[in-house]
Amino acid sequence: MSESAAAPIPRMSLRQHVAGSARGAQLFTAGAQLDLAQMAKSSRLAGAEVGPHATVLLRTRDQHDFALALLELDGRAGRLIICPPDLTAAQAAAVMIHHGVTHVFDDATMEGLTPARGVTCLALRTAPQPAIVTAPDCDTQWFMFTSGTSGPPKLVAHSFAGLTGAIAPLGATDEVVWGTFYDVRRYGGLQMLLRALTGGGSMVLSHTGEPVAAFIGRLRHAGVTHLAGTPSHWRQALMCPDLTTLKPRYLRLSGEIVDQAVLDALRAAFPGVMIGHAFASTEAGVAFEVNDGLAGFPANWLDVPGKVEMRVRNGTLHLRSARTASAYAGGGSALHDDEGFVDTGDLVVQRGDRVYFAGRASGIINVGGAKVAPEEVEAVINGVAQVHQSRVHPRRNPLTGSLVAAEVVAEAGCDEAELRTQILRVCRATLPAHKVPVSLTFVTSLPMSAGGKLERRHA
After folding, report:
1. Beta strand segments in 29-99, E
2. pTM of the predicted structure, to 2 decimals
3. What is the DSSP letter of 301?
4. Same domain, yes or no, for 382 and 342?
5. Does residue 457 lie within any of the structural domains?
6. Do 289 and 251 contact (CB within 8 A), yes or no?
7. Does 256 share its domain with 292?
8. Cα torsion at 408, 409, 413, 419 (round to 10°)?
9. Each residue of 174-216: pLDDT tens digit?
């Protein structure tokens, strides 16, 4: 890894944040309830000393040990490389070689990995030892993998200040219990975890492979007040009858395009509860949050100087802020343009005084030279009564190259023939002819990626 070791700076470590703000906050896991303040004042890290010149690969079996590792290593290691749960052993081994890894924290006992000579293995002790909460030795750089939505996943570097720049402190009397359908080893989930750890709130961690109904039960038992996930997470949760037994104060959506249908469904399920959606990505960081109940965002947010600056160039949203990642690991392609803006790759269109997301530039379907964003068609289909979710994809055609096809998850017991007719009627009334699906297939569910996003199909 070409980046030099971070120099010591006077900022608080994650451990200091937790020790100073936990106020009885808890970390709820599938099998335990842990006091965050006690976690901050104890150490379970075993192995050699870690210093500012260390590059540590974090590869954990569960999210609980990942949270513990962050408390141990932020402010001590110069660089942390965070492995998402679906990163294979072969991919992890390649990262170790290409990015100068000096230490590996792997609670899976190095499952499938053979560290290169000179790489030190770290682990957690069974019993915690008292720890002195001290100022950090360095400003740790946090490296995270992109989702791979628009190409092979890349490692991008974030500072602690950038990762926490959008987190507002809680009031002295606020009692917040965060929950998230995200995995906290990805950018969206890490944002929620850091909100709890730096802001004094509790956190309910999901468990790999845990059924939605089981997680909702644990959220209810913990008294969740703030719950976050992708629109795909929420569509899945809305099919669970127990969802409305939760009593949250705030619901949040991010990670995918938020259409009006999913916002309206959540409003119907949780009347009076604040529902917000945010735009964030691993490269661009957290850009903004919308809390007016409407899809898209106000057009007057564009081209305005401020902490986060947004503009549209060639149809895609570009962002500049201190929250964006600083660079791709190892150099290669540029993350920012010459003015410091990150091209998010997200297509946007302005209608009146509102800007709407139209899809990923990399996911466009070419129908005889005419462009179709799958998400635009999905938003129309999802707005039809009795539709839970849809996925639009290209279907090969010898004349036009591709045609538009769609898969639909419908309410149980609906008349599929009647619903098919209704969907096509709405699409024909709303969309140009080349965007109307030529085929509709009803399915019981649609696959989600490990990051909680709808898995896209290609022709």
Report:
1. 33-35, 42-46, 55-59, 79-82
2. 0.87
3. G
4. no
5. no
6. no
7. yes
8. -30
9. 789 999 999 999 999 999 999 999 888 899 999 888 899 999 9
